[in-house]
């Protein structure tokens, strides 16, 4: 069996043999529904689309994704199984990729289970389903970026709590860095070119562009290259631990 596939299966199985997976799915689906139809002013807007639904996803992921990734490597290190895993006939990159894909597929399952919201919108009106599909793609890519960050920072520490806090902190910085209030705060002290460069680091900016149905290659590359970069950093951290 392919080593990546073996790790992926092991991780997915570990989610569902404990209540973690079921608790996550229930919380995600309940909060997605409540935030969309009530906090998102779905009915007051008078438009049959899922923009309120997708705009809540960064904040849902900010709490729920670190809760999944915090155990990814920290639990292995604390439980003493990291050394055993590193002695198996697989590379660090294969182990990291297998764990990442398992978590990413799990988030994908959570997104698929929100299909009743999509059906409801189509029942209430005639939305642009192409834009909705783009929104789902953007949400899944953003979740992948969150997971890659969490995987890297989980490899940094043996404490799940520390991994959770660090992941949430980095993710909220990447969400807020492109907000007008933040950019205006630094407009008087930093060069305009630097501010524009910082604005392009905003995860929210790239996600919102995709969620509007605009599939720009630059937005897709932002998420894909970001995932690869964070995963490679996590592999380097694990390699440092192994050489010690």
- Distance N terminus to C terminus? 30 Å
Our estimate of the beta-strand percent is under 5%
The poorly predicted ranges are none
Helix fraction, binned, reads over 70%
Number of domains: 1
**Basic shape:** globular
Backbone CA Rg? 19 Å
Determine the mean pLDDT.
84
Helix run count? 15
- The total of beta strands comes to 0
For the sheet with most strands, the description reads: none
Given the helix and strand composition, which structural class is it?
Answer: mainly alpha
* Secondary-structure element pattern, one letter each: HHHHHHHHHHHHHHH
Which features would summarize this protein structure in a list?
0% strand; mainly alpha; 244 residues; globular
Give structural notes:
It is a single chain. This protein is mainly α and 244 residues long. The chain has one domain (3-243). Helices cover 79% and strands 0% of the residues. It has helices at residues 3-16, 20-39, 42-45, 51-55, 57-69, 74-79, 81-86, 92-112, 115-124, 129-154, 160-176, 180-186, 192-199, 203-211, 217-243. Helix 1 packs across helix 8, helix 2 (20-39) runs antiparallel to helix 5 (57-69) and helix 10 packs across helix 11. The longest helix is centred in the C-terminal third of the chain and has 27 residues, at 217-243. The chain starts with a helix and ends with a helix. 33% of the residues are buried.
